[in-house]
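FIELD: query
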Amino acid sequence: MLDIRNYASVTAAYWGFMLTDGALRMLVLLHFHALGYTPFQLAMLFLIYEFMGIVTNTYGGWIASRYGLKLTLTSGLTFQIIALCVLSGLDQSWPTTQSVIFVLGVQGLSGIAKDLTKISSKSAIKLIVPKDTPGALYKWVALLTGSKNAVKGVGFFVGALLLSIFGFQPSLWIMAGFLLAILVVSSITVNPTIGRASKKSKFSQVFTKSRAINLLSAARVFLFGARDVWFVVGVPVFLYDQLGWSFHEVGAFMACWVIGYGFVQAIAPKLTLRSLDGQSAEIRSAKFWIVLLFVVPIVIVVGLHLEVDPGMLLVGNLALFGIVFAVNSAIHSYLILAFSKHDGVSVNVGFYYMANAAGRLLGTLLSGLSYQAAGLTGCLGVAAAFICISALFTFALRESV
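FIELD: result
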């Protein structure tokens, strides 16, 4: 039977964190774009955030397996509160270089916070859902992942709204106060022993993975690189600069996109093949959906070259991209848990999301570079190439268990 108390506690904390995470990303992006930062400079602001995700996932899963998920969860919330408070001290009179270095440092702390929280919530699902119930595991993983992204989408809108109403500094204080309340509740309600392995794992075990986990992790690098290469800088800046959208409109669009993306993730088990062994049909589904994803950015690039109305083209096809990408992501999020054993699952999850962070880092860097060099078409061209590479790793997965 599902442990409802622990599931609710961990999920509520994750939701609260992701609301502020989405809001912070939109705050930083829109605020610094309005100050005149170039697309590449904007991408630089998020690089350390993604890099620290790689470092955090490398160590975080191992720490969680030794000391429990409550420690990593509450630590993540604490670091985010500190990051928000420190960022509120930014002085707009500082030179650009000084401001970038300051924000990079704060974003690094926020990156640590995000991935400590993610490891905790994703690992907890494997431990909370009863063993030998792959259908239930897929359902609850999809629900957690989908709801998290829907909440993050709301955060994009909240961030843009807070920036418009209260300004940069007060918005950060409001979010820090909200997270402090979440931290207090989590400290009281989350079981301190959840996720603690029966045998203390060695740090070297972080890199000792099965062939399936290695392939899935490699596919994840390029899957998320393909998304972030246009998502981080390209689309928001294009909507604001080229189409003349306001902060509210950009924030609302990005919010609706991520909310819809999260909804599709939540229902992904109904859209994909299912098997009694919990792996074979799901792997076939992963292969089908990654091929389908490849088609979407190609259609957008062709449409832009044919001078189709860019507003209609983007809104329609990015909605389609979001649907197909969401299913791909949901299958991956399930398979990493299906490939993992209960004891020390957080070590595998940490390794997998280290790959996820590496993809986001690569995508973030190339988002600024490709947009500055070739506009939105350049971003989408790189995205298509990344999806192709992800497909090669996905097709290498064996369907037999």
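FIELD: remark
The two ends are 25 Å apart (CA to CA).
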